[in-house]
Amino acid sequence: MSEEKNVKNSQTERNVNTKQVSKEREDIKVIRQIILFLILGIVCMLGYPLFEQTTRIYRAELPTHEIETNFKEFNERIYYQVPVFLNAPSAWKEYMPRIQSAVDSKIGERYPNLKDIWSLELHLNERNATLEDNYTLEVEYLPHPDSEYEDYPLESFFVSPYSKATKIRITDHAAISKKSEDFIAHVLIDGIFSEELDSLTRLVQDIYSDEITVPYSSKYNVVFSLMVESGKKLSWDFKDSIDLFSPIFSRLSPFANFSVSTQTQYYSNLKFAPDFRPDYNKKVWKNGAYVISEAELSTFVNYGDWNLFSHDIHPTINFIIYVPDSYDDKPLIIENSQTNSFLIPRWGGVYIYNKKANVEELTEQELLPLMEIFSSHLAQLLGLPKNPVSPMIKMDILFRTSTYRNLKQAMENLDALVKLTNSLKEISIPKKTKDYVTKSLEYFELSLNELQKGDFGLAVEYSSRSFESSNKAFFEKEMVQQAYFPSEHRLAVFLPLLGPVFSIMLLGLIKYIQENKKASKEKAD
């Protein structure tokens, strides 16, 4: 009996122990499940939002609709109306509509792409407009000759080189035959504004064929360099000579700002030895001359040894006065050049100055002719038209054509920016980019408003700011850097952390599913 009792007691103890172990296992299982769900909860509620927050790309909202509208409707929004005043008798008032119609017809026939962009607005000069600030046509009648032996006068015109005035001479024959309006239209379109209309036509058609003009910038560095071939000391009275450029820079101030600097460099040797020609132009150079051919001009400037590089972000226009050695008192001449100078497209100009052997200083009187040549080079490099002769009209033409180019390039930049941000969804759009875009659009509108008012100086100034702001928006460094940092790189950064965490979670979840399946199966049995 006692043995049976002991067996029963031992079985009871084993059952109790088994129940205790099972209970402990159930407790561990519950704790493990709680830990698993806690980790899952922390990852979902804290980890994922934190991951999204730390990897999210900031994309400022750009005024896309406004940019696209301005780009598509650009030629519909920009409009030039140039006022022209006729100094003529009051009786001409009834002829003004006919003259206006002739001018409009000529523009429409010759420049169909500009008929909705550019026009001349003719007025009879009843406002006493000053010659300096307005375009004026002074009409002069040429009477019929008194004698049959006298030559019949012809229509002619003369553009003043000092103002915006043009003098027109019209004969009685032209007035009677109603050809005076055609002649006035010819003077305005062919004689004064032809180069402007040609330039605008090329801009409208996206034809950029100018290989001489330097790239546009709101600021230019103008560097005058005295390059002396030998080591002999040579000074120059440059401070007074530069005053010749002061009125030019002042008139061009709405277009751009100019920073002027000078330098002198000795031992500025050429890369090649000039060719001596004893019979070259004997009437001028009795002992012959050293001649540089037109083919050698491309290698005249020694870019490697001459200190001509500028580290400024703005374009540099270089003007070089090259003083060669005496060459046995024989001059250094550029072949087929009347000024002994040449222009380097998009870079600057060079003048070769042959000084006397004992000269140690270049005076103001000697430098003035050189400055006049450089001023002509500057006009070509900036894109001023060759005609008409009036510098005031030339600058107005430069302002108007530059305004169109700047505004068009500004909208092209902004449109390209919108397309870039739409195609690359993961590229960041910093707040600075949005600010630059907003500024560009504001200056765009201001420039258009000034065009409507006829203030072409302010119009080109605002257009320059619009263009610069669009460039800054497109090339904002934070956005450019982000373009080369795709999402795969961000994943690579977080993978060392995410790998262990997700592996633990995955293994725990698999074990939890297996235990649940096993428990369900045991209950079913």
From TrEMBL:
- Compartment list: Endoplasmic reticulum membrane
Q: Would you say which domain of life the source belongs to?
A: Eukaryota
Keywords, comma-separated and alphabetical: Endoplasmic reticulum, Glycoprotein, GPI-anchor biosynthesis, Membrane, Transmembrane, Transmembrane helix
Question: Which Pfam family is an annotated match for this chain, by its short name?
Answer: PIG-S
Q: Which residues cross the membrane?
A: 30-51, 491-513
Q: In which pathway does it act?
A: Glycolipid biosynthesis; glycosylphosphatidylinositol-anchor biosynthesis
Tell me the Gene Ontology biological-process terms attached to this UniProt entry.
attachment of GPI anchor to protein; GPI anchor biosynthetic process
Please indicate if the UniProt record lists Glycoprotein as a keyword: yes
Any one GO CC term of this protein is: GPI-anchor transamidase complex
Q: How does it sit in the membrane?
A: Multi-pass membrane protein
Q: Does the keyword Membrane apply?
A: yes
Report the sequence similarity comment from the record: Belongs to the PIGS family.
Q: What is this protein called?
A: Piso0_003051 protein
Task: Please report the organism this UniProt entry assigns to the protein.
Answer: Pichia sorbitophila (strain ATCC MYA-4447 / BCRC 22081 / CBS 7064 / NBRC 10061 / NRRL Y-12695) (Hybrid yeast)
Q: Which gene encodes it?
A: Piso0_003051
